């Protein structure tokens, strides 16, 4: 009888695994105990966030002379904290190439949030660079004035027709003659010496900046935190089943006079139950070992909302999945989730998704709570990195 009780307990665990495998939730342990006179069955689950604990509750069941009913469920969250260094580049436009003007447009720090990691990034002043945003052509005039003299007469032959300023040739535009000396001729003073004030000019064009573009880097360490897994403990309390007193019956005798009916029922009944439980246990173990571990999603109706469209069973020896036969077929963003047990075995390995447009291969980078990767076959046909 003792061995039969151990066998029945093993079958009960197998039945539990089969039942929860159908619901995609498998307990990590099952304990039958008597605590302070109370008969209990305790099931423990390790599940990702978002699981509805109501789905873990089972209807009343009987085992080993007791009827078990759900009593309560406890929840224990296991959190995680990760950090990484981030650099963000910011561009601003200014009217002047002046550091103070640029700094007025750059905040000392900026917030960072990519949906998973968040934090503050600080401005790195050493990374600021400024360049002209563009150039415009402007026209103007270059002038120069030369004084020529003293001269003995106001003769234009003394005045050059051109002059050079800053490498550019200017032409004579105007001459002003000035008397700088006189002599007495008879009773009259007459000019005896002159100087020429010559003005030269030329048209010119030059480039001016229309504005300036400055780039700067913000750097910092950001964090990601949340719930990694949740331990749910589901407790069932047992009530002892009191059997009814059987009524005496006339034994059925064979023609030879020996008892037959009662002994046959005593043997066949337990044997049938054991065979049935063994079959159910085998089915539960099969479903557990062949449960789906790769989920395919497409974007839902709201931002950051995804809709599950297919599940696959993938073995670690062949890290790939073929979605070419899906109907309806995803033509835009496709998200692939590798469940944690498989992600642990494939960490650092390449996983391939066979799409009608191309084969998309990427590296499995994390296993908590699983690995998530997205690609868009409607964009350039490149293998994701």
Tell me how many strands there are. Answer: 16
- Approximately how much beta-strand content do the residues carry? over 45%
Count of DSSP-assigned helices: 4
Number of structural domains: 3
H/E order of the elements?
Answer: HEEEEHEEEEEHEEEEHEEE
- Which spans of ≥5 residues are poorly predicted at pLDDT below 50? 1-7, 17-23, 254-262
Distance between the termini: 60 Å
**Share of helix among residues?**
10-25%
Radius of gyration: 47 Å
What is the structural class? alpha+beta
Mean pLDDT: 83
Shape annotation: rod-shaped
The largest sheet is:
9 strands, antiparallel
Brief overview, please?
The chain is 17% helix and 52% strand. The chain has four helices and 16 strands.
Description:
By secondary structure, the chain is an alpha+beta fold. The chain has 3 domains: 2-79 and 228-245 and 259-279; 80-226, no CATH class; 294-375. The strands form 3 sheets. Strands 1, 2, 3, 4, 5, 6, 7, 8 and 9 form a 9-stranded antiparallel beta sheet that branches. It has a 4-stranded antiparallel beta sheet with strand order 11-10-13-16. Helix 1 packs across helix 3. The protein has helices at 2-22, 99-105, 261-289, 340-346; strands at 29-35, 38-47, 61-63, 66-94, 109-113, 118-151, 162-165, 168-185, 188-240, 294-299, 306-312, 320-322, 334-339, 350-354, 359-363, 370-375. The chain has 4 helices and 16 strands. The longest helix has 29 residues, at 261-289.
